[in-house]
Predict the 3D structure of the following.
Amino acid sequence: MKNNLEHSEAAAIFNKDVKRVDWHDETLWFVREKRDKAAFQIPEWELLRETASEIKNNVLSNIHDYLLEFESNAQKNGVIIHWAADADEHNKIVHSIMEKHGVKQMVKSKSMLTEECHLNEYLFEKGIDVIDSDLGERIVQFRKEPPSHIVLPAIHLKKEDVSETFHEHLGTEKGNNDPQYLTEAARLHLRDAFLTRKVALTGVNFAIAETGEIVVCTNEGNADMGVHLADVHIACMGFEKIIPQRKHLSVFLRLLARSATGQPITTFSSHFKTPRDGKEMHIVIVDNGRTTQLGREDFRSSLKCIRCGACMNTCPVYRRSGGHSYHNAVAGPIGSILAPNLDMSKNADLPFASTLCGSCTNVCPVKIDIHDQLYKWRQVLVKEGHTPLGKTVAMKGMATVLANPMVFDFAGKAGRFVMKNIPILVNNSLNPWYKQREMPAPPEESFREWYKKNAKESKDKQNE
Amino acid sequence: MKIGLFIPCYVDQFYPKVAIATYELLQKLGCDVRFPIKQTCCGQPMANSGYEHLTKGCDTNFIANFSEFDYIVCPSGSCVLHVKEHLHDENNEALASQMRKRVFELTEFITDILKIEMIPGNFPHKVGMHQSCHGQRGLKLSQMTELNAPFFSKPEQLLSKIKGINLVSLSRKDECCGFGGTFCVTEEAISVKMGQDRIKDHEDHQVEYITGGDMSCLMHLEGILKRQKSPIKIIHIAEILNATI
């Protein structure tokens, strides 16, 4: 990862460039609005979401059987199936396939799983050269950055940044920011990779148990181009990508692209079922913490995620903090409920990087209760001791005051006295509220003091 | 019908005028309303920070203060949502569960329980409505823009019938203001940026007032407006409704 800063620290740095934050926010909001437009053209949109959610619930409850069904059908199709318990095993399996074929170069289309497993870094260490063929991913790969968004990996960059990157790595004209010119340069560069690389790796959007086939959705056709020109196709998937039957695909394909980018469907929805004559097809099915997450009752439904990114586009915090501030392969609200499962102490800040506004839950095409899970992760992280001591002390103090009416009354009076008479104690640079906001003006009396004097009912007087 | 007035702790301390407006408004609407004097806080500040296990004292105190009332009414969607979702009593869960159903946010209490469709009055101003996320997406006081579903809004239903009011339609109808409880200090940069952007949307529509159902959002926006020396004023919906009736 690029940095190890806490989300709030990275977000504060991101916010120093106001114009760029505004641009980032507006760009992603544009995608959210496009999503609304596409979704609302379908009268049964909410029913579709519910149906997808139910299908995924069924999958999670029967995952063992569906995985075995998928394995057996895929094997009948001539596919070689591998099982990986964790990221390390996944990386080793992929490398062993490369070694078996004596190949040192790979072309790879988008796969968030391989980002999660840090496959590129692993293969680099082993002397294997990987070219990411998704345009956005290629851009961030040149810059040695992780993707900042699962669907729009280079959304944190402007065309000027891309121009500079391409000038450095592809020798394009300095200062030429014309998107068509830049895309053409990338196209020529990638064309060479497609034509020469013998191993192509892809992700998996859906794996159909009934038929043993996988479906990969792209807009650029780069997955197909890579696979069709290579001798070996390796497809890597988290085990939750299973859907029971082909007919269920119609539900998910209608939801995926509309939720992701506001398109009715991705340009390519490619089905891969069986290797061509003389070629090989491998599928690596990865656990990497998913079994643990499946066993966490409050968090298991996070595994319903189809990686559309809608929760990121709608998240007011993500739009203003950028994907890298989440220091995890999957950023945004969904990343913040997946990451603590992988490493609680490293990702303890993420469930707090939210106002719990709930917009993520509403756009989620498979109805994951994302904001409720953020709340629940906070409780778990505190109980497991991943919060700073100072915060715990403060919270305990607060709990004592708020549980005792007499103390509360006294603390309130004392607080207002201080704000009125010694404002510097509150209004100083150590108070993060005061940095860019005024404190509320303390009133003469609290409501309860007013009430004691003014309430009309005699009964209330007795209450005093 | 005995109504217990539940006033958020920070409103009691910093915005007594909002509590007074709520109290007076309910009385004008014919309610027998009382403020149990020993109430403190619903416990949300701790719970949202991950310390829900420290809120038992708040729960006990809340139940002791409010169990006798037929309805518990509060001028805050956020505090009501917290009680609805998290009020518990180890010794009498049946009572806690019953009380969770008896707690209402002010505007939904007026439209759904009192069944009052309009509050007469005059408020000749250009107003922007900032609906709190907890009120909207949590309590479903109004429709959410993410859903493909018909529009409704309980607070706007009341506001729109006031004479002279010019309720503007914001560009981002239900964007969060960035307050978020302790988020407003732990994620200071984002919180303020969200608030500034929310204000910008209101400025672009030339409002005189920003109103809403949650003083916490409004306190955050007010803090930014004051720092910017903006002429835009903050007013809780209870204050508008109470002033006009």
